[in-house]
Write a structure and sequence with these properties.
single chain; 173 residues; mainly alpha; three-stranded mixed β-sheet; globular
Length: 173
């Protein structure tokens, strides 16, 4: 059975980004229900040396759509811009990214196999094949940031469970 690079990446990105959008909705509803300040979640960190919720959400986009854009260019660098600072802007970033990912053609992603790819950060770099970059670097980072987004909300008391993390699974038609 052939399994394509597209099938190994894009559908999961869309699924989990959809779940992250749902998590943002739950965070916003929690703040409304509890009278909590949105910034208490948006700036929440699991540990002092970890990035806050907003960064985690932003990074799910960076390591999904941003990774695909990086492969298109042949180079990927970390996004050091400030993440959106309110729920609406965070959700808009996710929704826009899903729309762009949904429009990507299977053949384009599958054509990445064997292409040279460079991760560059300052004067340091690491060279990959496109498929190894996507599957061994960006995909683990994508899931790390999605999981940390979920974990911050659980830690703050938002009532969410595993189904909120997995989102809409892809069932047999």
């Amino acid at each position: 059975m052939a399994f394509s690079l597209y099938a190994a990446t894009i559908p999961s990105y869309i699924q989990i980004l959809g779940a992250v959008a749902g998590l943002i909705d739950k965070a916003e509803a929690f703040c409304t229900e509890k009278g909590a300040m949105p910034q208490d979640i948006i700036q929440a960190r699991l540990a002092a040396d970890m990035q806050p919720f907003a960064y985690q959400v932003k990074s799910t986009v960076v390591h999904s759509l941003g990774a695909i854009e990086g492969v298109r260019k042949g180079t990927f660098s970390p996004d050091t811009t400030t993440p959106p600072q309110d729920f609406a802007a965070l959700k808009a970033r996710i929704v826009e990214s899903i729309a762009v990912l949904e429009a990507i053609e299977t053949a384009e992603v599958d054509s990445f196999v064997g292409r040279d790819m460079r991760f560059a950060f300052g004067d340091r770099h690491v060279d990959y094949s496109a498929e190894n970059f996507l599957l061994s670097f960006s995909q683990p980072n994508f899931y790390f940031h999605a999981t940390t987004t979920y974990d911050i909300l659980r830690w703050k008391g938002v009532r969410i469970g595993k189904r909120d993390f997995t989102g809409n699974t892809r069932r047999k038609s």
